Structures
1.
Amino acid sequence: MREGAELVDESGCAMGHITSGGFAPSLDAPIAMGYLPPSDAYEGAPVIAMVRGKPVSGTVVAMPFVPHRYFRKTKSS
């Protein structure tokens, strides 16, 4: 899914758009970020992106897409 792709609901009504997207090697899958109305932006909500005129199913997830594995050192006195 690329920037500008339209997000639609199951009935095909426009509800938002993709702001950025690409392939995530860590997940071995495509990912994207976009805008949805608050009522439709809950975690687990189904979304459909129109990519080159074809519907592509997706799911709203919390960010970050992949949990980080780093930690910050605390300052010692």
2.
Amino acid sequence: MKIAITGKGGTGKTTLAALLARTLADQGRPVIAIDADPDANLASALGVPPEEMPAPLSQMKDLIRERTGSKSGYGTYFKINPDVRDLPEKYARIIHGVQLLTLGGVSTGGSGCICPESALLKALVTHVLLRPQEAVILDMEAGVEHLGRATAEAVSMMIIVAEPGLRSIQTALTIRKLAEEIHIPRLGVVINKVTPGMDLNGLTGLLQGMPLLGTICFDPEIARADLEGCSPYTGKEPQRREICAILDAIMREVEKNA
């Protein structure tokens, strides 16, 4: 199971990534979580204290120079397919049974930047997605920058996290267009922050065929965890049911479209 999670900022995509990763780990499955969002909040959502935050790989200049052969200065040559096979074991942080890799952002260039940092990060994402032995949870920003056409098919499903509102659904449709351009085969939606009695029929009708994989109810404990910068994972039965139902829905969609 290789799951890429994206969505508009503030919808709760990092919360969902952490809950899925922790649930899979609690089930005894090997799981690696990749924080590919420049904001890099997945570590705290998994339960890493602020003083123990891992350094993003994009900031490891010596490592980047070593693997890509890059030198300082504009227009220098470097390897676009560096050797990254040992990096998951060397740099993953183990948190509650989850292996975490924090990529960080690329500070130079624009969208689609071809630079040593992006070459290393994309090679690493490709390597991890193509490894058969772990479930992978990829926490992305609202785009597909860390995925290329060569690796998109390795993603079992891209999940778009949306809030129960028209603007958030419209953003989900925009992300869908980006994902389709690189031929990501399966997409689904999770609606977060649902309140009791809310009628979602009108919103789900706007998803243009994307399956609704499940919902996550608004939980004051999750909101408090977000404010305090700690893990939203409680392991309590209502939360466990919601996340297990989403995982089951993912498996059904993957098997249906295999």
3.
Amino acid sequence: MTTVDTVSTATRRSARFWDRIAERYAKKPVADEASYQRKLRITRSYLRPDMELLEFGCGTGSTALALAPDVARITAIDISSKMVGIARRKAESSGVANVAFLRAAIDDFEAPTGGFDSVLGMSILHLLEDRDAVVAKVHGLLKPGGVFVTSTACIGDFMRSFKLIAPVGRFLGVLPLVKVFTAVDLENSLKEQGFRIAERWQPGKGKSVFIVAVKAS
């Protein structure tokens, strides 16, 4: 796949926020290492060595690089050029050759229908303008029987007032775009687009909801 960087005008403001914090973000340890490792183990149980995988909202590439040995190839995209740059450097320094890091938004990302065996969207769906549209796009990108793995902060389950705070924070430049919805909202979105929820796990109250959703064969 050609490594062409594409980001629409609508995402540039969020991209600037993530560009600003990229170096600090890269240095932060995982907040809950045990939960993260469990999510990786579950994800790996759905992968095969011949698979093509897409990760959107890849950040600095840690998850893509961790899963690289488990699949044939990974295309990992993010709207932040600084995040993508860090991810590329990490891949080069660790000798990982089967991951392509691209600057792109999932909204604008062009790929053949049914081109991927698995799609990952980790800590990203609540940061997108139109969750339902993205879930529909992911469904189209997957092959029949393909798997969508997502870990999502469902803020509506524990902090509904954040819906009032988020626009102010974004205006001041201290927060990115953040959408407030519940886990039920997310599950309904997946089901309405034709996914079957195979696994659902939440480490605790206020923690991200981890879901494995399968496209019908």
